Amino acid sequence: MINTAALFSTAFLPGQAGFDTDTITGLAEWRLDTPMLFKLLIGAGTQAVAWPIYGDGEDCPCVLAAPMAQAQASWQALSALMDRPRDAAAIVARAGISALLAGGQAWLVFDCVQLIPHDIDTPQYAAGLEALRAEAQALHSALQRGDKEALAPLLDAGAASPAIGYWSATADAQLADVEELDANALPFLQGLEVREWVEDALCYAVIAAGQPDIRGLVTPYGRWIAPLSRGLVHLDASDADDGWITFATADKPDAHGVMDLNGTVVLAPAPGDLYVISPHLLHQVAPDGPTCLRRLPDGARLLEGVDSLCQRDDGYIDFMRLTGEQDERNVHGVLDATGAMVVPPAYSSVQDFGTKKKIAIVSQRIDGRFLFGMINSQGEVLAPCRYEAIDCATTSSPPRLRKNLIFAIDAQGLACMLTLDGKQAFVPLYPPAHHLRGVAVQSDFLYVVKDGMAWSMDFTGQRLEQFDTVENFKAAITAQLSEAMGLSKKKPVRRRSFTPAQILAKADRAQLRSMAALLLQGDADLAARCVDITLDELAEDDPEEEYEGDTPAAACFFLLWSTAAHTLGHGTTLDWKAVDEVPRLIQHIGLPALRDFSWAEREDGDAMAEGLAAIAAHLAPHQLRLINMHGGEDTYYLGVVRAQDAAAFKAAALLAALRPVVY
């Protein structure tokens, strides 16, 4: 849903005899914000009333209403202060507003429900409604005084602007939720080809008959967000959920600009490419290579020479500083959602910050080695990068806490525990007894090696008990793990793995883009970005790192899925026990089709199999299929493909020696 302000006219108000929702007429609307004109027209004689098109608003005041006669008088007074219209569009716009206000209905209703970020019938909502009423009264007073300075945004506005809003006699404001309708029944679509329904923009993407390169966006009720008359040859609404649409015109096809969801251009086209990073940030890449980070909507330049910007699971944004030195590794940093610097670009990696303890693991390449340290969310160094390893759940997770301590292995290979401020809890003396994650450290003690024997040691560095020889300790641990995984009576399956260089040597960008497009519901531009991010990260990776797969193509296909999932929000990883995460799937996979997903039929004892079946059943009417990149494992690597792509996806995965499950 796109939050929208709207004006309606009605002969009666709710609660009055004769009120009928079928007689409500929409006059004007504006997405994402409240136009100044809407507040001025409501004016001083406003009252808060119920509004039954919202369930919670049937018996609770939630909108503002004023006599239509007052609104007409305010419009006439404002028109008298305005300069004479300079063009035909302005003349038509003013005449249209006058005609709509003179439509014969007795009341003007200002629907602001969607723009007050609180539930109806709460004190916070009532305060927000009262604040809007106060603004309306202040504008009415300014109009009575003839205060042109206070009314300047309205007096200076053209035919269509955020101050005026969208007015149309033929495309009324929508009375309820906007949804896709039968295109064949909409007269304004006749003679056009509907390419797709863009859920995030609540528009049809259309092209003109006889002009297949010209693109437009229009709502189901006839409001043109991107009119065909603009001559747009590139129109990308894949970032509409962040509030922005990128475009290019026929006369400058290699120059890209940005418009908002009202169709208002906020950044004029400039040569190069644009990538929306968040609702507040835009990455601009010029044709000759220079890049910069811009703030939206004003377009201010925030940071020069940056690349590989992407959203993180903790809400921050990763970026890489471009240095021009191919061997430079310590160039990664972190920004907040507004573009403010959180972590300067001085690291090889910055893992996620914890949700409670705002600590992240960082790494630097020092004398040919990757060493790890810790920082806080102010970017302050807690532990310098001088540790061979710091314990965490995954390669992107925050540090794992045990009794508010963090297990680490220092640069000399010795085990220790770190406090939350990065200090060593004891002087490291012994190496860990096992290299497997989660084995060397338990909930209350460590396994360490002294004189060829495995010992348990508490978190203060005191040895507690001699366990066995190191060889016997490793054998016992291996046997326990094999039994837990059901492999004790089976021949271990040999897993192949490949270095970044081996994967890059086999990478075919065209083929990878086709594979990525299957993972991204056919979005070619996003697929190209996915491939670029994946290959760029491989090129910057530790050359000794290895990725599992029966073939380099299999390893790369899985990395493409990882980028699509964790960087672009088109998938997620769930443990087989994470049943409670199924109803919250929209927090993990940011696709419109999952916004209203619920697992209403869930019963006690239901496991992941039932949860995945519920997801698949929900996606089916949307012509989408749920996929698991690796079948038969305890971890689910989930994504979503279009139903029409399911066979091609499975064929591509099998060709790359992956065995996916398509639900």
Q: What are the main properties of this structure?
A:
663 residues, alpha+beta, six-stranded antiparallel beta sheet, elongated
Care to describe what's here?
The structure is a single chain. The protein is of the alpha+beta class. 23% of the residues lie in helices and 30% in strands. It contains twelve helices and 37 strands. The strands form nine sheets. It has a six-stranded antiparallel sheet. It has a six-stranded antiparallel sheet with strand order 23-24-25-26-27-28, with no helix packed on it. A four-stranded antiparallel sheet has the order 7-8-9-10, with no helix packed on it. A hairpin with a 5-residue loop joins strand 19 and strand 20.
Number of helices: 12
Q: Which percent range describes the beta-strand content?
A: 25-35%
Q: What is the averaged pLDDT score?
A: 86
Return residue spans where pLDDT drops below 50 for at least 5 consecutive residues: 490-494
Percent helix, as a range, is: 10-25%
Q: How are the strands ordered across the major sheet? A: 3-4-5-1-2-6
Question: How far from one another are the termini?
Answer: 28 Å
Count the strands?
37
Principal-axis shape: elongated
Largest sheet: 6 strands, antiparallel
Oligomer type? single chain
Rg is 30 Å
- The class by helix and strand makeup works out as alpha+beta
Helix/strand layout:
Blueprint: E1 4-10, E2 25-31, H1 36-42, E3 47-49, E4 63-67, H2 68-81, H3 88-101, E5 107-111, H4 123-145, H5 152-155, E6 166-167, E7 192-198, E8 203-208, E9 211-218, E10 224-226, E11 232-236, E12 244-249, E13 252-260, E14 265-271, E15 273-278, E16 281-285, E17 291-295, E18 301-304, E19 306-311, E20 317-321, E21 332-335, E22 341-347, E23 349-350, E24 359-366, E25 369-376, E26 381-390, E27 406-410, E28 415-418, E29 445-450, E30 453-458, E31 463-469, H6 470-484, E32 497-498, H7 500-506, H8 509-519, H9 524-540, E33 547-548, H10 552-567, E34 571-575, H11 608-619, E35 624-628, E36 635-642, H12 646-655, E37 661-662
Antiparallel strand pairs: 1-2, 1-5, 2-6, 3-4, 4-5, 7-8, 8-9, 9-10, 11-12, 12-13, 13-14, 15-16, 16-17, 17-18, 19-20, 20-21, 21-22, 23-24, 24-25, 25-26, 26-27, 27-28, 29-30, 30-31, 32-33, 34-36, 35-36, 35-37
Helix pairs in contact: 1-4, 7-10, 8-9, 8-10, 9-10
